[in-house]
Amino acid sequence: MADLKLDILVVPTYNTLTLGIADASTYPSTPSAPTIEITVPGFGIVTLPFVPNDFNLFNSTILGITGPTDDLLPIPDGVYYLKYSITPAYINYVDRTIIRVEQLQEKFDAAFMKLDMMECDLAIKTQSKVELNSIYFFIQGAIAAANNCAVDQANKLYNQANKMLNNFIKSDCHCSGNNYVTNFQ
Fold this sequence. Notes:
With about 180 residues, the chain is an alpha+beta fold.
């Protein structure tokens, strides 16, 4: 018989409207009263039923961000605290700290897709790739920091990536290529 081992996995949905959490636990028997607490940045804690041995999908209505008759809204980016528990909850639980970056990633993807990979000016194209790689590095740093419960660092890295991405988009990629010429040639 399997021993009790609770575990959850946050599964990318590649959608700003959903948060996916899979149960990766092992149970000796059917669990009693499975719930998940989700701390949504800017909205507080919501406690919801959780289906064991399954993939659970949450949207803005389920998380209490929008009402049942409202249109779904993007789930906010930021640091989330997740706590999955079964009865008795004070003994049988697992928790995770993650950072959600779907809205930032969507903005990054749009900027990346505007980058003309066939640009004739190699220095400008390379400069843009250098800038996008730097932004991507900050996004991955924010994810790594949140995965290691370094919440302040995760938020700083997220905010820096967002600021850099906004500046990149605002400049409409009219860069000179000087960074590439100075640093890489």
